[in-house]
Amino acid sequence: MKHLLSLEKLPRQDVELILAASAAMKAQRGRPSARLAGQTWALLFTKSSTRTRVSFEVGIRELGGGVLFLSASEAQLGRGEPIKDTARVLGRMIHGAVIRTFAQSDVEEFAQYARIPTINALTDEEHPCQILADIFTYQEKRGPISGRRVVFVGDGACNVALSWIFAAAKLGFELRIAAPRKFQPPADVLRRAGGNIVCTEDIRGAAEGADLLYTDVWVSMGKEAESAERLRDLAGYQINGALVKLAKPDALVMHCLPAYRGKEIDEATFEARAQTIFDQAENRLHCQKAILDWVVT
Ligand code: CP
Ligand code: NVA
Fold it and tell me: Domains, the chain, ranges and CATH?
């Protein structure tokens, strides 16, 4: 039985398989598929979502499966039923689960007890499906990411940044994280990941020679109580026209979305790079289908 719980635990060979399958899914979109025929999958979400929810719901249907969306606040989970009990019930009724929640340990516990393929659709620690789609998008436009310089700007300790960190050593690209000291990734994550990763407060130095400038929201879901402090501390860690000038002339600018203009990216840069950013969002669908195909193989 396979799961996609983190990029940290996903072997390079499987990353490569999913990336190749994403291209195939994109090329073959519209052709009927019975890959998940006879299966019902559940999306169990504790946090908001547009892209991840829609791409999984559409993706499961396009692969011939049935899908049901369960908001944790409406399920008994929201009233305190333990994850491991929810998992044992769902495991007897459905064929796979896609989970978005807070603790990484909850997704892992669900997979352990449900004993059905389980996919991490974002936790506080990782967003593996996002980074697979991001790398697919980069490679689709610019060729192999190996040997390239990826620069993440903003909250370097958030889930998206951490999944980039785990991807870097695996796929052999340089990753620079430009963030205030307090928002740099934990030392333990950097040690576990290995690879060529530089963490710095010097955003301009980091952006020099970048092949890809990437950012994410300053206030991730669950961190709303820290909003004022984050907006103050992260001010200046923005992708804007001046920063883009320091990157390579053909550098891409990407954003996992949702985007907050005037915070992590300025309006002009966002709109100038909208084609790439919305291709990136569309690729979530093709990549989710590749992940579903991989996880049931
Ligand atoms: N990027 C991303 O995961 O978007 P949603 O929160 O809308 O799913
Ligand atoms: N870091 C963001 C990603 C949103 C897709 C969050 O967790 O809210």
Answer: 32-126 (3.40.50.1370), 130-280 (3.40.50.1370)
Cα 160 to ligand 2 centroid, rounded to whole Å: 7
The mean pLDDT of the chain is 98
For residue 73, what pLDDT is reported? 87
First to last CA, the chain: 9
- Evaluate if pTM is beyond 0.90: yes
Name the residue at shortest CA distance from atom 6 of ligand 2. 220
Catalytic status, residue 255: no
Closest ligand 2 atom, CA of 158?
1
Measured from the alpha carbon of residue 223, the closest ligand is: 2
**Is there a contact between 173 and 148 (Cβ–Cβ < 8 Å)?**
yes
In whole angstroms, give the CA distance from residue 44 to residue 54.
13
Per residue in 161-173, pLDDT tens?
A: 999 999 999 999 9
